[in-house]
Amino acid sequence: MRIVADLHIHSKYSRATSRDLDLPNLWAWAQMKGIDVIGTGDFTHPQWFQELSEQLEETALGFYQLKEAEQSKAKVAVPVVCQRDVYFVPTVEISTIYKKKDRVRKIHQIIVAPNLKQAARLNEKLDKIGNIRSDGRPILGLDSKELLKLVLSLSEDFLYIPAHAWTPHFAVFGSQSGFDSLKECYEELTPNIYAIETGLSSDPPMNWRLSQLDNLVLVSNSDAHSPQKLGREANLLDIEPNYPALYQAIREHRRDQFLGTIEFFPEEGKYHLDGHRDCGVCLEPQESLKREGLCPKCGRKLVLGVLHLVEKLADKPYVETQDFASLHTAARPFESIIPLAEMVAEMMGVKSSTSPRVQNLYFELLAKFGSEFFILRQLDLTTLANMGYQKLSEGIVAMREGRVLKKAGYDGEFGVIKVFQGVKQKKQMKLFSD
Ligand SMILES: [Zn+2]
Ligand SMILES: [Zn+2]
Question: How does the average pLDDT of the chain come out, rounded?
C-alpha cells in the first residue's frame, strides 16, 4: 500500500506551538494534506500521553487510529474527497544538551516507539533522568549516545533518528554545537542509526555528498508546530500500515518499501545559506569564506548555513542526477514541492498565506479536487485548467518541473520560492506518477 508518512510533529504541549495541536485536528489536517501515517509527537509529555491513551485505539501492530467519538471534535470538516484512514505512530523529539570533548553539544533526535506500551517504559526511565513534564520536546542533560543506549536497552525495535541533522544550533552536524561525523557522536553505537532527517534546508543530493551517510535512509518530515504545517516534507513508502513494516522499510532501506521523500526546495529552509539576520546579510558559502566567516556589516561571526556545512564535510562531488544506478544503494528519488497555500498567495499577490482570501481558495481546491499532496503531485492539470484554474495549473507545472525562482533562507529567516515569474530552469523529473 502506498503511504505518505510524516514522523516528526509536535503537540500543543511543546513550546511555541499552536493550541490546535490536538488529536482530532491532527487527524483532520493529515487527511487534508494527504498523509496516511503521522507521528504523535511529544509522547514523553504526561498529559499528551494520556490523550494518546484515551483517544486512540491500536488497529494494527503499533499503529493507532482516532476513536470515532473524537473525530467530531476537529475544528475543520474534512472534505469528502480528502477523507482517508489516518494512522498515528508514537514519536517524540528529545533535545540533549551536554559537554563532549570540551564543547557544549545541543542535539535533537526523533524517537519512534514500537507501540504506546514501549513508549510508556521509556517515559518511566526518562522521568527519573530529567524533566519531561513541562515541555513536549523535553531537554535532557544527557549524552546523545547514552540516550540511544537507554532506548536500545528497552527494545531494539525503537527507531532513533537524528533530527534536522544540519540545523546550525540543534543538530548532530550543526555548525554551532554538533559534530563532524555520526561516529564522533554515537561511537560504537553508530550502526544502530538507520536514518537521519535531512531537515527543510537540505535535500537528498546535498546529503549524497557524504560517504558516511551512504547506508542511511534520508527521511523528511514537517516538524510542524501547527496543523496547517503538517507535511511540509514527508516520506513515501509502499508497506502495509503497521509498525513492523515501517521499521523494516527504514532499517533495511529496501528500495521497494522506502520509495523516497517529498521535499522543500532547500533554499526555502531557514538555514540554507550563511548570514546574519539582524544585519540583513546573506552570503553564499564562498563569500563568507572569503570574509573569514565574519559579517561585513557588524564584524561578528556569521551563522553558517546548511550548504556551508555540507560543503565542509562532503567527500564527494555534487550530482544532480536522479539516475539511481550511479548512486549508492540507500539513495532515493525525491520531489520538491511548495505548500499550496503559499503558491495561491503568490498567485493572488497576497503577502500572507493565512489571509482569508487565500484560505478560501485553498479550501475550495481541497473540496473540489482532493488532498493538498494530490493536487500538488498527481492532479491532472488540464482538468484543473479546464475548471477555471488556468493560472494555478501553470504554477503547479512550473513547480513540478523545478522552474522556480529562489531566494534562499539564512540565520532563521525563511527563504522564498516563486513560481509565477516565468523563470526558465532545469527540469525536475516526475518520479512518483501513479
Ligand atoms: Zn528540533
Ligand atoms: Zn552582522
Answer: 94
